[in-house]
Amino acid sequence: MLSRILIVDDSLIDRIMIQEMLADYETITAEGGSEALEKLRTDKSVQLVILDLNMPDMSGFEVLETINNTPEFENIRVIILTNYEEVDNEIKGLELGAVDYVRKPVNMLSLLVRIKNHMQLIQQQNEVEMDNKKLDQLVYQKTREVVNARDITINALVSLLEVRNIETSKHTKRTREMMSILANHLKHKHIFSDILKDDYIDLLVATTPLHDIGKVGICDAILLKPGKLTPQEYEIMKQHVDCGVNALQNELISEQETPDFIKIAIEIIAYHHEKYDGSGYPKGLAGDAIPLAGRLMAIIDVFDALINKRVYKEAYDFEETVSLITAERGKHFDPLIVDAFQDVKESFLAVINKYLVEDDDDETDYC
């Protein structure tokens, strides 16, 4: 679309004269400020305004202020018309956002040169904006490709667990949803607001299914054992944490080149079996030394494990599950995260029952 020029002047003679001078350009006119602003709102092709400052209904200064304070007019350039003796008006107009001025009586050559220069600048500005839109679209497409590749990779890794019937796909779906609920609730708490930004939460939720990926390295005799593990078997089971971390770290080139989602996945895998009082594994970290991703995953994983039937245990009911988690406040779990869990526990239960509706082969409704 070609850019139009709007000529605003209460003098019909001046409007006609300027239009004739600009015969090579597409122009429209307005005889006052109010009419000019209405035309700017309805005609989006206008990008240059020639504005008389001395008009009876609405001064050029008022029109300038309105243009500069209206977001939809942000790309409109204004050239003001002044008389030769109105130096102060020229300065004031430029201070209010005008890009140039022309003095009356209008010199045709001067006006044409100025118009030509500004129209070229407008064209260059439009080309830059078009290039930026294309670049934004390209960045969006590439970002989607990266996200899709990430999600495909995560799903492929998790499927290695599912094919061995270690956990059903429902477990990964449930824990993803619960991570989203808990993290989005905690982001409004001042103590967590600096880290729980939306982008970080998105990565937390996306990588949650990887928390037990290291179990692919544990033999079926231990993973699928229907009873309690012996101390020796438990030590072998604990190795799934390092196995999972190593699976991701072994292919990394450097810390600087590690994608954020891999960093967060490693934190979830490495620290979701740590306990707030330092009695967890594999490193025995305590308190805030345990990365937040691990502290969040810990309570989600335990909740889901307690309330659902596993090969080694029957399911606990909802109230008993909540009671067991609450009893571990400050021991197994971060006290602040337990408090947040209490706020969203009904939402957690809704997630559990949502998937029971889809597949209730082994489970019952806990409401």
Automatic annotation (TrEMBL):
Q: Which residues form the HD-GYP domain?
A: 146-357
The answer to whether UniProt assigns keyword Transmembrane to this entry is no
InterPro entries attached here? Answer: CheY-like_superfamily (IPR011006), Cyclic_di-GMP/3'3'-cGAMP_PDE (IPR052020), HD/PDEase_dom (IPR003607), HD_GYP_dom (IPR037522), Sig_transdc_resp-reg_receiver (IPR001789)
Say which domain of life the source belongs to: Bacteria
Q: Which UniProt keywords apply?
A: Phosphoprotein
Q: Which segments constitute the Response regulatory domain?
A: 4-119
Signal sequence, start to end: none
4-aspartylphosphate: residues carrying this PTM: D52
Q: What does this protein do?
A: May play the central regulatory role in sporulation. It may be an element of the effector pathway responsible for the activation of sporulation genes in response to nutritional stress. Spo0A may act in concert with spo0H (a sigma factor) to control the expression of some genes that are critical to the sporulation process.
Q: What is this protein identified as? A: Stage 0 sporulation protein A homolog
Q: Which organism is it from?
A: Fusibacter paucivorans
